[in-house]
Amino acid sequence: MQVRLLIDGVDRTGSLLERSWEIQGNAFGVLDHASFLLDDPTKAISSVTGKDVIIEDFSDALTRFFGGVLTDVSSYTHGLGRRFQCNALDWTFRLDRAVASETYRGKSDQYIITESVASPKGLFFSPTTDAELPGFIVNTTNVKIGKANTQFVQFKRDSIRDAMDTLADAIGFVWYVDPFK
Fold first, then answer.
1. Which residues are paired to 137 by β-bridges?
2. pLDDT digits (tens, 9 = 90+) for 12-33
3. What's the pLDDT tens digit per position in 50-92?
4. DSSP-based helix, strand, coil % in the chain, nearest 5
5. Cα(179)–Cα(55) distance, integer angstroms
6. Which residues lie closer than 8 Å to 156 by C-beta, 6 or more apart?
7. Which end of the chain is more exposed for a tag (fewer CB within 10 A), N or C?
8. What span, in angstroms and rounded, lies between the C-alpha atoms of 70 and 90?
9. What's the rounded Cα separation, in Å, for the pair 71 and 92?
10. Which of 16-22's residues contact partners 24+ apart within 8 Å by CB, and which partners?
């Protein structure tokens, strides 16, 4: 299978060693992981952590196998050039870097998720900039409308991931961030 590799929007497919990439898909709150090798014979590539990584079908960009963040890059000499060993975690990784600070009583899970996204100071904001998570579009189409939470739900600077886990555990469902964010 031929894939396209995008790092921060730049097509790096030509540098990707064909049999070097691997995606480990997980479930139940464990982050998906991707690893791959880039060949840089001219030393022209600069690869740094924190960049967006997308691995998709070469002939169909609507078939995405992985979307996430470059978390580890190590380079080593190879011939006259170099190679990069790269590791990435799925988009859920970013949800550990934003926090939730809000209180809800008698509201459904769908309401909490939807209302929080609409509020700039609600559930989704960055602890350093008070801005919404960049590039995230929360889709509640598949969120099941449940009974109102009769319990008191309060988030005090909990990570977004922990807040979503709390809501999912309360109703017995799972949540995820797909490769399209």
1. none
2. 999 999 889 999 987 766 789 9
3. 899 999 999 998 999 999 999 999 999 998 899 999 999 998 8
4. 15, 40, 45
5. 9
6. 101
7. N
8. 9
9. 12
10. 17/83, 21/55
